[in-house]
């Protein structure tokens, strides 16, 4: 079901195991996460601090959908690792595991200097490294809102082509969950949850600053989540 997809993600090999979440978690961790980190990251490039990369991956999965300063992350892992963390985040992104989205700005330099917004490439990574079971996630409205937002972000990342960039945007207390940039066109995407019902100040402000932006609210009656997942990332900028 759609709700199961939000919680368990979309790895085909793990699908038959979702009725037994303990076995499902073991499969995701041991058959997907570990081989991906070992073969797609550690064997492909030199990593001076493998333990730091693993810590970053676990923290990023836990904070998927949240904007986090790498300086603060570095403080939790030991001072002086900010550059290493940025490099490791790029490696995890190239391996299709975890990305750090940049804040949208018309100036590329400002984008690169922004705090990253962690985003898993598959919600299975977010769930398998947590203690939340399916029923727990569904019962926790705040958690489920984050899971839905992460589903949208993962879908956008996985369907973006070479001409598409994915960002977030915020200014003071205003925020847009995702900004899709495709060949000079923009789409601002907000994921609806119970806590943000009827409040879309971030979308309003972003579209005021960039008037040609396509505006989308995922999860309302006009654009249900399931319908959104039928189209690729560039589609929403047309």
State the gist of this model.
By secondary structure, this protein is of the alpha/beta class. It contains 11 helices and 6 strands.
Sum up the overall morphology in one term.
Answer: globular
Rg, alpha carbons:
18 Å
Helix content: 40-55%
Spatial arrangement of strands, main beta sheet: 2-1-3-4-5-6
Structural class: alpha/beta
Keywords, separated by commas or semicolons:
238 residues, alpha/beta, six-stranded mixed sheet, 11 helices
Structure description:
There is one protein chain. By secondary structure, the chain is of the alpha/beta class. The protein has 11 helices and 6 strands. A 6-stranded mixed sheet has the order 2-1-3-4-5-6, with helices on both faces. Strand 3 (164-171) and strand 4 form a beta hairpin. Helix 3 packs across helix 5. The longest helix has 22 residues, at 21-42. The protein starts with a helix and ends in a 10-residue tail after the last helix.
């Amino acid at each position: 079901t759609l709700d199961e997809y939000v919680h368990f993600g979309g790895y085909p090999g793990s699908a038959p195991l979702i009725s037994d979440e303990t076995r499902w978690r073991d499969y995701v961790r041991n058959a997907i996460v570990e081989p991906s980190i070992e073969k797609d990251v550690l064997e492909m490039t030199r990593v001076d601090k493998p333990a730091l990369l693993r810590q970053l991956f676990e923290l990023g999965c836990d904070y998927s959908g949240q904007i986090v300063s790498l300086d603060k992350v570095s403080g939790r892992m030991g001072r002086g690792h900010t550059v290493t963390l940025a490099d490791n985040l790029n490696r995890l992104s190239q391996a299709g595991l975890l990305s750090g989205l940049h804040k949208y700005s018309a100036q590329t330099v400002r984008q690169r200097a922004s705090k990253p917004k962690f985003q898993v490439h598959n919600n299975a990574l977010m769930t398998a490294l947590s203690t939340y079971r399916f029923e727990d996630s569904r019962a926790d409205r705040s958690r489920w809102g984050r899971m839905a937002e992460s589903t949208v972000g993962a879908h956008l990342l996985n369907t973006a082509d070479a001409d598409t960039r994915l960002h977030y945007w915020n200014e003071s207390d205003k925020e847009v969950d995702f900004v899709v940039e495709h060949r000079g066109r923009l789409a601002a995407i907000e994921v609806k949850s119970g806590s943000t019902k009827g409040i879309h100040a971030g979308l309003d402000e972003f579209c005021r600053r960039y008037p040609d932006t396509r505006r989308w609210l995922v999860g309302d009656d006009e654009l249900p989540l399931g319908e959104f997942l039928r189209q690729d990332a560039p589609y929403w900028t047309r």
